[in-house]
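Re: folding output
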Amino acid sequence: MTKRAVCPGTFDPITNGHLDIIERAAKVFDEIYVCVLNNSSKSPVFTVEERVELIKQSTSHIPAVRVESYQGLLMDYAIDVKADAIIRGLRAVSDFEYEMQITSMNRVLNENIETFFVMTNNQYSFLSSSIVKEVAKYEATIDDLVPAPVAVALKEKFRSNE
């Protein structure tokens, strides 16, 4: 029986921390659906389509990964793709309270889909998409923070906004 997981996020942009979580989840699950969600409380630098493409390029070495976008509730998407689990990365204790609220709500929506928390690799514990964008905006080196296609895209994006 195929075990399928959804790894959701805004991914604006995907970082090496996100990629590490996806790679590790792919060792446990047969299929990983990376689901790009549009967070209405954020102002993204990249369009949903650009984010999907950057994630596809960044995860092309992982055969089990599929990348899609979704408008709506994560749990509806998880049901649509027949997921067994949702993968959530935790960087620090400060992430836990927020993630626990989401997980509790998801259990109310569908108690049959489990949430698995994956602790971020220590080398990425400080890393967030917001930090990467801020550093990239000032043309600092981001090559060790994001996959190569993202570094190129961020440099182009901020160059074109000048």
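--- second protein (sequence, then structure) ---
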Amino acid sequence: MAQKEKPVAWVVGGPKGLGVMVAKGLAEDGYRIVINYRQSRSAAQKLKTEIEKNGGEAIILQGDISNKEDIRRMVGKVREDLGRIDALVCTAGPFIFKKTPVIDFTDEHWRDMIDGNLSGVFYLVREVIPMMRRQGGGRIITFGYPEADKVFGWTGYGPYAAAKTGLAVLTQTLAREEAAHQITVNMILPGDIRDPYKEAPICEARGKEDQRTPVGRPGTGEDVARVVRFLVHPDSDFITGAMIPVTGGFINT
């Protein structure tokens, strides 16, 4: 396969968390990987080195996806260096683990939740979709949480839930609008996947017990990456607007 023909996958938020195994898996499938980071340059460089050690290709970019100017700059750099974006996988998204009533959120925390989980994806797709249209198609994958496709209140996590349920609607809207351009848009709903398993292969979770998850073992980054790899496959072009749980049966209570 000629260099210019190799597809490009941008794993947004790839240096840490669930994006790590996604980036490694897509690199194994022949994608050139784009990894952006806001502050974690050492983590991004480590992931790049690991991908290259296994025969893959990767570039790293500094930028904040909640910042419109950063996104324009990064997209321009990818266009200049790699010429295309075939898959946009939006794994990034801030989350505050401490339960907090809505009225106790500061303006800054509200903006972090909304911009990092919803507005940033809008800024990204606004820049990337025109490229995908010119290429003749592409894949966009967003990330939610269990049952984000249903409108339920989530006590203690209101701003995050508002952003992700909004993202679910945005995902399905884009799926309808871009279908004619051969661009599929789907959302993965990861379960309660925690460190150290976010960046781990499935084999490391085998035999481990997790009482929160009905299947009995912890979820891993590879569980999520397997679904991403399926959705970006050329023959997955009939799947769009889907909300796919990768939860081991876990639901928010």
